[in-house]
Amino acid sequence: MLVAFAGLGLVYVLESVELMDYTVRKAAEVENFMTSVERVMKYTELDHEPGYKVKKLPPEHWPSKGDITLQDLSMTYYPGGPQVLRNVNLHIKDGTNVGVTGRTGAGKSSLVAALLRMPDAQGALMIDDIVVKDINLQVSRRCVSVLGQRPVLFSGSLRENLDLVEQFQDVELWRALEIVQLKELVESLEGKLDHQLLEHGANFSVGERQLICLARVLLHKRKIVILDEPTAHVDPDTEQTTWRIVREKLKGSTVITIAHRLNTIKDCDMILVMKDDEIDEFDSFNSVVTKT
């Protein structure tokens, strides 16, 4: 009898150890999850950007041209922080293709951030003679299309990634895909436009993802387009396709292309050279190359 009780006790002890191990693991998981909850709660306590409170709207069909004017524009990313733009004065005529270059930290990305009001800069930023700081933040950002180095795609159908708010007809989607040379690929997919993408478009190659994003830019036909080294991570064929489409299909837009290599922006109408958070030169490609 004593041996039986001893065996039963040993079994209970072993089960208790397993339960304790399970309890400790679950407690550690809950602690990790609570860190995420705390982070989410912190986000809910952040103040809205001031521009969201501005109710004023621009005229209908604004911007109609894409003319950009910067007057004494300076910017810091946070109160008391270092200036990342200093007294920038610049006029970009509508329809101009501008290449922006400069060394790392020269202010190229900060110039784009100012155009997107991330955050609002000091001084005047005008698009088609409208001071953007005086109008609603969401509306002002919608007038600009951005194609960056890394394609921005999410899990969902190809149709949703091209047209999230369902404002375009299928024929327009197919036309955009044809321009970026993806029509045949999409036609071969199960579901075609309803084909499901993985998170970040992982079931497409990097070049294909970038071309999908370029198709999205073409669909929206915005008057201001920002290209932030869009061919940095693609193969040579996709790079040539991208720049050919930009030259042929974005003629009616003001295009701002950020690049480290001058060869990338040699076909631009004007070259803007940034240095130490200021404009160093703003001239034609040949003039800039001659001076350097």
UniProtKB/TrEMBL annotation:
Domain ABC transporter: 68-292
A cellular component term, taken from the record's GO annotations: membrane
Coiled-coil stretches noted in the UniProt entry, renumbered to this chain: none
Signal peptide: 1-16
Pfam families named in the record: ABC_tran
InterPro entries linked: AAA+_ATPase (IPR003593), ABC_transporter-like_ATP-bd (IPR003439), ABC_transporter-like_CS (IPR017871), ABC_transporter_C-like (IPR050173), P-loop_NTPase (IPR027417)
Keywords: ATP-binding, Membrane, Nucleotide-binding, Signal, Transmembrane, Transmembrane helix, Transport
Localization, UniProt: Membrane
Record-level Gene Ontology MF annotations: ATP binding; ATP hydrolysis activity; ATPase-coupled transmembrane transporter activity
Membrane topology: Multi-pass membrane protein
Family, similarity comment: Belongs to the ABC transporter superfamily. ABCC family. Conjugate transporter (TC 3.A.1.208) subfamily.
Protein name: ABC transporter domain-containing protein
Organism from which the protein derives: Pocillopora damicornis
